[in-house]
Amino acid sequence: METLTFFPTIVWSTQCSLDNEKYFKLVKDFQQKTDISYSSNEGGYQGYEFNDQEFNDEVANLVPTLKEDDFNSFNIYAWVNVNGKGHSNNKHSHFTSDILISGVYYVKVPEDSGNIRFYDPRGELIHKTLDWEYYHNYQYHYIKPKEGQMIFFPCWLEHDVEPSQSDDERVSIAFNVRRIK
Question: What range defines the domain where residue 95 resides?
């Protein structure tokens, strides 16, 4: 029997060569100088408009492409997240028509500081109507982040971050790769 795979959702993950100590210091300095922004975070700190050329270059070099033409003209919009014990990020997506792909880079990841969870884009209905196992019938998948890891995902893919159980802070830099019009 032939097997056809329709509508797969791809999430890419790679280890980066960025200096995490440097980026930890940059994020903490940014946090001191930039007001907190409220978006998906529950507790913790989220600060917008983090801009660092080395970081942007690393994202640009690693961003997965299916068609080179899609990425001829783009910019990277980044923000930082600092989450302490009990802090999390609510379920959300980054969808707008000018975002090509979204991602997150993990600067500091203490043990038990919360996994990122991606939700099945087919919605809850598919899980309630099937009596048999279809693609393992999971409503979501977790990734346990590691320091130095960069994850890319479609901007429309809903995700959240579990509450941290660590007494130490988890530090990440989230970003969107935007098409320049």
Answer: 12-179
